[in-house]
Amino acid sequence: MAHVKHQKWWGWGEEGVFFDYQNKPAFAPFVKNAIGVSLRPRERDTVDFATARVPASTASEDVLTVLRGISGAEHVSVDDELRIVHWAGKSVLELMQTLRNDFARVPDAVVYPGSEDEVTAILTAAVEHDLVVIPFGGGSSISRSLQAEADETRCIVSVDMGRLNKVLEIDETSGLATIQAGVLGPDMEEQLNARGWTLGHFPDSFAHSTLGGWAATRSSGMQSDKYGDIADIVRGLRMVRPSGTVVLRSLPSTSTGPSLREMIIGSEGRLGIITELTVQVHRLPQEHEVIAYMFPTWQQALTAVRQYTEAEIPLTFARVSDAHETAFSLATQKAATSVKGKLAAKGQDALWAVMRKRGWDTDAMCISYVCFEGTPKDVAERKKAVAKIAKAQGAVVLGSGPGALYDQKKFDTPHLRDFLLEQNTVGDVSETAAPWSRLTTVHKAAYDAAQRAYERIGKTGWIMSHMSHSYHSGACLYFTFAYVFDDEKPYEEYEIVKSAIQQSFVDSGATLSHHHGVGVEHQPWMEQDVSPEGVALMKGLFHAADPGTNFNPGKIVS
């Protein structure tokens, strides 16, 4: 549909946007050392859709007539490319399946409702005609929350919310905005910024994900230390069901039994379709600055961030890359071409030399980024307070130059996965959260588990991590892993490595996922995470809400 933005059918993001390593002189040697791959220049600028072998739609003319009667013929499609755009999310496993034409169960039709009434009518029709409906936002899910069950025989309808993309109202007195669920992050921020406001929610997928998708998967943004996770941000919502609409008014707090808001946030379409949300918004800050720090060790960096939290310094975010991720980050620096850039590169080399003279192991050092927002006075005071704690833990303040570069590149990382797949290499992520007292244990356990998995599949692999999303009691750890896959058994190898890392999380006292949701990818660990009785309670809720299993069946718990 020309009026709704979609990602490319075969990979992440828009056509023509790629990861390029050739202007990063340290990157190829780094990859060769890490996983033994000799990189070759990108050859795949696009993938011709004519190469896709798409299963035929099984939507009957009767069903299509009903859908066209609801949203108009121009907003209902059985086009093969649109069906493939909507068949899955963008996990590495799904990208591999797409590129290999391993399409399991593709939606039979895609419908683009233009109003809440149309969404209600679609869900009513789904129950009457025994259809499966799967809500679709930006398609950025990496937990397989968009894939239909492979053995599903009923007609599957993907309900794309992209036409519902407006900021409807801003209550400037209360700092609340009512927004339609299908709006993409950049489009929403543009509408809010025009009136001097921001949601402050910036996940890695920001450019290609929607407000409704964030709520449906319990998303967290890079700036959650200040603005909160999506569960903190959402104050009210509307969720359509065949029997009516759940309306939760935008109240600051309530004592009205078990929280329906919490029940709906993270439900991944199992209870109905979220059409509208009322969210907390904030005035655009006068200043926004990211400062970089280099710590001698991972433990010193974690201690510093915990102490920022204990000192209750208001920060927008505090992030620490471990030694492996720090080395990766340094390897992705572009070659200096300007006089200023060359001087900066020489300065960096000189700084590393000074650190080594001080006794630093530069292979163990960890870079950290802290974001400050507010008035000039607020920012100055908070920078001073953070610097004092960081220096007490041995850090060197690198300043705003590296921080500004981080801010500019923060949404670029997902493009690396497509590039690596062309090099027959998996690059994927697993993230978790744990109390401060468990973080180092969780970190080490994940590294050990990954190494055992690499040995099991007979590969040299890589793992790295960063800490983000700090809380009073703990923080998120976000791991990236990579290895060369075997063309004959790519899915089996992936299962071994991913499962090993996920199992290490729950075994060491962490959660199965901090912000990627459950979908199908993380479902095997649900009983270990929330207890068998907790899973039974969820199953009872989903069965009572959807006895015909018409709403995104099989996600979260089966």
From TrEMBL:
<feature type="binding site">
    <location>
        <begin position="204"/>
        <end position="210"/>
    </location>
    <ligand>
        <name>FAD</name>
    </ligand>
</feature>
<dbReference type="GO" id="GO:0071949">
    <property type="term" value="F:FAD binding"/>
</dbReference>
<dbReference type="InterPro" id="IPR016164">
    <property type="entry name" value="FAD-linked_Oxase-like_C"/>
</dbReference>
<dbReference type="Pfam" id="PF01565">
    <property type="entry name" value="FAD_binding_4"/>
</dbReference>
<dbReference type="InterPro" id="IPR016167">
    <property type="entry name" value="FAD-bd_PCMH_sub1"/>
</dbReference>
<feature type="binding site">
    <location>
        <begin position="268"/>
        <end position="274"/>
    </location>
    <ligand>
        <name>FAD</name>
    </ligand>
</feature>
<feature type="active site" description="Proton donor/acceptor">
    <location>
        <position position="478"/>
    </location>
</feature>
<feature type="binding site">
    <location>
        <position position="417"/>
    </location>
    <ligand>
        <name>substrate</name>
    </ligand>
</feature>
<feature type="binding site">
    <location>
        <begin position="135"/>
        <end position="141"/>
    </location>
    <ligand>
        <name>FAD</name>
    </ligand>
</feature>
<dbReference type="InterPro" id="IPR036318">
    <property type="entry name" value="FAD-bd_PCMH-like_sf"/>
</dbReference>
<dbReference type="GO" id="GO:0016491">
    <property type="term" value="F:oxidoreductase activity"/>
</dbReference>
<feature type="binding site">
    <location>
        <begin position="217"/>
        <end position="220"/>
    </location>
    <ligand>
        <name>FAD</name>
    </ligand>
</feature>
<dbReference type="Pfam" id="PF02913">
    <property type="entry name" value="FAD-oxidase_C"/>
</dbReference>
<feature type="domain" description="FAD-binding PCMH-type">
    <location>
        <begin position="103"/>
        <end position="284"/>
    </location>
</feature>
<dbReference type="GO" id="GO:0008610">
    <property type="term" value="P:lipid biosynthetic process"/>
</dbReference>
<keyword id="KW-0560">Oxidoreductase</keyword>
<feature type="site" description="Important for enzyme activity">
    <location>
        <position position="319"/>
    </location>
</feature>
<protein>
    <submittedName>
        <fullName>Alkyldihydroxyacetonephosphate synthase</fullName>
    </submittedName>
</protein>
<dbReference type="InterPro" id="IPR025650">
    <property type="entry name" value="Alkyl-DHAP_Synthase"/>
</dbReference>
<dbReference type="GO" id="GO:0008609">
    <property type="term" value="F:alkylglycerone-phosphate synthase activity"/>
</dbReference>
<dbReference type="InterPro" id="IPR016171">
    <property type="entry name" value="Vanillyl_alc_oxidase_C-sub2"/>
</dbReference>
<comment type="similarity">
    <text>Belongs to the FAD-binding oxidoreductase/transferase type 4 family.</text>
</comment>
<dbReference type="InterPro" id="IPR006094">
    <property type="entry name" value="Oxid_FAD_bind_N"/>
</dbReference>
<keyword id="KW-0285">Flavoprotein</keyword>
<dbReference type="InterPro" id="IPR004113">
    <property type="entry name" value="FAD-bd_oxidored_4_C"/>
</dbReference>
<dbReference type="InterPro" id="IPR016169">
    <property type="entry name" value="FAD-bd_PCMH_sub2"/>
</dbReference>
<dbReference type="InterPro" id="IPR016166">
    <property type="entry name" value="FAD-bd_PCMH"/>
</dbReference>
<keyword id="KW-0274">FAD</keyword>
